[in-house]
C-alpha cells in the first residue's frame, strides 16, 4: 500500500499539469497589475474569464483603467461582445506579430466563435506600419485601425499572452460604436402643397353691341306700334270721329288716313292739313300710351 501512495500522488500532479483549466487564470494574472483592474473586473462580470481559462492557447488585448471607460459605458450585452473582440484564439506575443509576413493578417476572436458576429465583425485586422507601429482594428470594411500595441504585460509562451493596447476595439454595427456614424434621421415626408384651384376666367364685360341686343323690347315697342296704327289701325278712326268732329277740317280726316304717301301729297301751304295730321298723331300716341 505504501508503494502505491507515491504513484497516486504523481498521477494527480501530472493530471493537474495536463489540465487546461490549471494552465493559467486570467483573473489572477491581471490581478497583479492595478492598471488593469477595471478591465479585469469587466471580464469577470461578463463571465468571459471562465471561458478564457478553459482555453489552452489565448491572447488577451487589455486596456488600462483610463481607456476601459470606453467599454464600461456600453450596455451590458454590448460589453460582452466588445470584450470578446479583445480575446484572440491563438498565442501572439510581440515577437510573433513582428514576424508576420506582409505585415498584415486577420486574427480570429472569441466573438467570432460565439456565433453572434456577422460577416467579418468577429475578426481583427493586424497591421504593422512602415514606422514599426503595430495596430489592431475591426476587420469590418471601413473600420479604423487605431488601437496600438503599447507593451507586453505578461506571457506564458504558447499558452497565454497579455498585450496592452491603447484603446478599445469596437466593431462598427455591434452597438454603441463611436466609430460608426448614426444613420441620418428619417426625413418626415412633407404633405404636398394643395393644388391651386383653377382660376376662373372673368366673365367678359358686355360690349356695346351686346348691350343694344339685350336691351328690353319695351323701350322701343311704342315706336313701331305707333307707326302701325297711325296708318291703318282702326283705333285712329274711332277717336277721330269723336274728337275733332265739330271742326270743319275733321271731315277731311279720312282723306289723310290713306297712308304716309297721301299726307306727303298734301299742299305745302295747307295749314289745316298739317293741324289734322298733328292731331291724329297726338291722338294715336295718347291711345297707345293708354293701351300699354
Automatic annotation (TrEMBL):
May be a cell surface adhesion protein. This is FAS1 domain-containing protein. PANTHER family: FASCICLIN-LIKE ARABINOGALACTAN PROTEIN, OS02G0461500 PROTEIN. It is a lipid-anchor; GPI-anchor. Keywords: Cell membrane, Glycoprotein, GPI-anchor, Lipoprotein, Membrane, Proteoglycan, Signal. InterPro entries: FAS1_dom_sf, FAS1_domain, Plant_FLA. Residues 23-154 form the FAS1 domain. Residues 171-269 are annotated as: Disordered. Pfam families: Fasciclin. It comes from Urochloa decumbens.
Amino acid at each position: 500500500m505504501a508503494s502505491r501512495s507515491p504513484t497516486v500522488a504523481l498521477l494527480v500532479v501530472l493530471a493537474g499539469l495536463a489540465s487546461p483549466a490549471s494552465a493559467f487564470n486570467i483573473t489572477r494574472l491581471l490581478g497583479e497589475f492595478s492598471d488593469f483592474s477595471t478591465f479585469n473586473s469587466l471580464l469577470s462580470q461578463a463571465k468571459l474569464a471562465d471561458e478564457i481559462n478553459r482555453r489552452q492557447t489565448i491572447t488577451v488585448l487589455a486596456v488600462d483603467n483610463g481607456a476601459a471607460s470606453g467599454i464600461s459605458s456600453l450596455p451590458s450585452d454590448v460589453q460582452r461582445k466588445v470584450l470578446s473582440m479583445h480575446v484572440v484564439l491563438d498565442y501572439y506575443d510581440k515577437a510573433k506579430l513582428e514576424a508576420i509576413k506582409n505585415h498584415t493578417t486577420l486574427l480570429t476572436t472569441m466573438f467570432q466563435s460565439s456565433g453572434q458576429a456577422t460577416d467579418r465583425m468577429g475578426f481583427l485586422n493586424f497591421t504593422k506600419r512602415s514606422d514599426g507601429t503595430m495596430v489592431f482594428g475591426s476587420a469590418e470594411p471601413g473600420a479604423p485601425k487605431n488601437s496600438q500595441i503599447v507593451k507586453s504585460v505578461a506571457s506564458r509562451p504558447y499558452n497565454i499572452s497579455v498585450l496592452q493596447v491603447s484603446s478599445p476595439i469596437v466593431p462598427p454595427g455591434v452597438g454603441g460604436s463611436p466609430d460608426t456614424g448614426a444613420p441620418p434621421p428619417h426625413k418626415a415626408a412633407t404633405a404636398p402643397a394643395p393644388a391651386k384651384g383653377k382660376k376662373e376666367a372673368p366673365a367678359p364685360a358686355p360690349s356695346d353691341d351686346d348691350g343694344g341686343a339685350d336691351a328690353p323690347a319695351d323701350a322701343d315697342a311704342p315706336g313701331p306700334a305707333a307707326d302701325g296704327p297711325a296708318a291703318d289701325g282702326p283705333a285712329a278712326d274711332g277717336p277721330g270721329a269723336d274728337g275733332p268732329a265739330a271742326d270743319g277740317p275733321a271731315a277731311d280726316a279720312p282723306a289723310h288716313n290713306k297712308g304716309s304717301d297721301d299726307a306727303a301729297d298734301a299742299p305745302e301751304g295747307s295749314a289745316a292739313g298739317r293741324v289734322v295730321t298733328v292731331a291724329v298723331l297726338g291722338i294715336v300716341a295718347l291711345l297707345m300710351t293708354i293701351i300699354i
